[in-house]
């Protein structure tokens, strides 16, 4: 039976890489290539991805018993923690706003209303394109988006650098809402 061992290391340019080593019948062979373009996660290595990758692996295992070839495969930034500190606060008055949260552009972030919340009235996400000087609810046509009606999480994606988000309560808000923005 074949097994895979992953080791996360940093290369000479301080990029995070994963080295993949395969063990088949006691012989270890480091992986000399990266997954095919379009392969997601470890599907290429588990045998659930494209047949050609699995066939190449089998051929490599057969030829490399005892060899030591090592070529690291780069880890996509989408698989690494963002480094952005989450924002979490309890909102309890009408027209109250949380601190601004600036996500990394191009990566989804989460807008949470956490389980200890119990409120009535408006609770919505607000967006600021000018660094937090002004903010406005997200509206498509005449429909307000990201208006929280219940406890849960909503993924949000922002592609413009520097845009900020925050939770805000409406003028009719009453109760408490524990909210969080995280990436």
Walkthrough of the structure:
With 183 residues, the chain is mainly beta. It has 2 helices and 14 strands, in the order βββααβββββββββββ. Strands 5, 6, 7, 12 and 14 form a 5-stranded antiparallel beta sheet that branches. Strands 1, 2, 3 and 4 form a 4-stranded antiparallel beta sheet that branches. The longest helix is centred in the first third of the chain and has 14 residues.
Write the layout of secondary structure elements.
Elements: E1 2-10, E2 16-24, E3 27-30, H1 43-46, H2 51-64, E4 73-74, E5 87-91, E6 108-113, E7 118-120, E8 123-128, E9 136-137, E10 139-140, E11 143-144, E12 152-157, E13 164-169, E14 174-182
Antiparallel strand pairs: 1-2, 2-3, 2-4, 5-14, 6-12, 6-14, 7-14, 8-9, 8-13, 10-11
Kindly summarize this structure in a few lines.
The chain is mostly beta strands. Helices cover 10% and strands 39% of the residues. Strands 5, 6, 7, 12 and 14 form a five-stranded antiparallel sheet that branches. Strands 1, 2, 3 and 4 form a four-stranded antiparallel sheet that branches.
């Amino acid at each position: 039976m074949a097994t895979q061992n992953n080791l996360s290391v940093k290369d000479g340019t301080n990029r995070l890489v994963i080295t993949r080593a395969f063990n088949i019948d006691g012989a270890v062979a480091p992986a000399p290539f990266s997954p095919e373009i379009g392969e997601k996660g470890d599907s290429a290595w588990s045998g659930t991805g494209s047949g050609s990758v699995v066939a190449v692996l089998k051929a490599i295992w057969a030829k490399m018993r005892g060899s030591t070839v090592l070529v690291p495969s780069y880890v996509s930034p989408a698989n690494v923690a963002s480094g952005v500190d989450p924002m979490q606060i309890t909102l309890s008055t009408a027209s109250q706003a949380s601190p601004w949260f600036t996500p990394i552009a191009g990566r989804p972030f989460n807008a949470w209303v956490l389980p200890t919340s119990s409120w009535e009235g408006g609770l919505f996400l607000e967006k600021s394109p000018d660094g937090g000087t002004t903010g406005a609810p997200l509206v498509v046509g005449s429909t307000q988006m990201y208006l929280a009606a219940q406890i849960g999480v909503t993924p949000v994606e922002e592609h413009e650098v520097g845009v900020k988000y925050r939770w805000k309560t409406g003028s009719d808000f009453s109760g408490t809402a524990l909210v969080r923005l995280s990436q």
